Amino acid sequence: MLYYAIAGLVVISVSLIIYALLPNRSQDEKAIIRRRMAEGKSPREATEELRKQARDSVAKKMVKRVAPIAMRPVMPKNAEEMSKLRIKLSNAGFRRDNAPTLFLASKTIFAAGAALIALVYGFSQGYEIQKLFGVFVFSAGLGFMAPNFWLGSAAAKRIEKIRDGLPDSLDLLVITVESGLGLDAALQRVGDELKNVHPVISEDFQIATLETQMGIPRSEALQNLAVRAGAPEMRSLISIINQAERFGTSVSQALRRQADALRVKRRQAAEERAQKTAVKLMLPLIFFIFPAIFIVLGAPAALRLMDAFAD
């Protein structure tokens, strides 16, 4: 009965927290819906907009109140660690100011949630104190590390998208530079053109263009682009562009050579993955396909031998 009591207390606590975070209903909802309908919206659209505003208000209040408390146990010790965390989040595509706060808070929340689930499960199964403590610690550690695993996976997927789309982006960048556009205008044009094909690279190029328009030096904006992307190919590209501008060599030729090198590297990576296919197929063949073949081929002979020996 103890774990039922714990589960009931958890449900009651969560319900009270959600009720406390609900937006103020002092305004009349019907009046708000009439106002939205006067603006040309249908009753259904007005109602959905009102519900969405209520959900957003609850989410914002929850983040504002819970996140600072939850992130306090895992707060980085200095600004350098916080900067590294921001870079990791940027590599995964999360660049809002509150991204580190939400990530750190998620570590504490996941750890507490996993530990609570393990505790309830342990009580329900009648575990001893030592075993219960071990399951509790293991679940808390697993929940604490789960956001790190997720962040690493998200960053790796985004870097892979950048690596795959960079040769095409460089080809278009070479064309725009050779047609007479400056490097800033070329980056802006490539970012606009690749919005549907390679949205990740398009977003990074547009951010770099906005930084140069705000007065940041081009070399610094490109360096920020390399840090945000996190891909080694992007860092080498930015280094080549900066060196070409510093020494006065042709930027278009440098971009063309880099595009050819990246294309060759992408083809070699595809060939490497193709060569690994035969090795990866060994385990499915051995454990799933070969046993079925042996059964189909050997079962009739085995049955005949059994009948022969039985006679």
What percent of residues are in strands? under 5%
Helix-strand sequence: HHHHHHHHHHHH
What does the radius of gyration come to?
Answer: 29 Å
Helix share bin: over 70%
Alpha plus pi helix count: 12
Average of pLDDT = 76
Overall spatial form: flat
**Class by SSE composition:** mainly alpha
CATH class of the domain at 158-273: Mainly Alpha
What is the name of the CATH topology of the domain at 158-273?
Answer: Receptor-associated Protein
How many strands in all? 0
CATH architecture of the domain at 158-273: Up-down Bundle
Q: Assembly type of the shown chains? A: single chain
Terminus-to-terminus distance: 63 Å
Largest sheet: none
Low-confidence stretches: 19-28
Q: How would you portray this structure in words?
A:
84% of the residues lie in helices and 0% in strands. It contains twelve helices and no strands. Helix 5 packs antiparallel against helix 6. The longest helix is centred in the middle third of the chain and has 50 residues. About 3% of the residues have low confidence.
What is the fold's blueprint, element by element?
Layout: H1 2-21, H2 29-38, H3 43-71, H4 79-91, H5 99-125, H6 129-178, H7 183-193, H8 199-213, H9 218-229, H10 232-247, H11 251-280, H12 282-310
Helix pairs in contact: 1-5, 2-3, 3-5, 4-6, 5-6, 6-7, 6-11, 7-8, 8-9, 9-10, 10-11
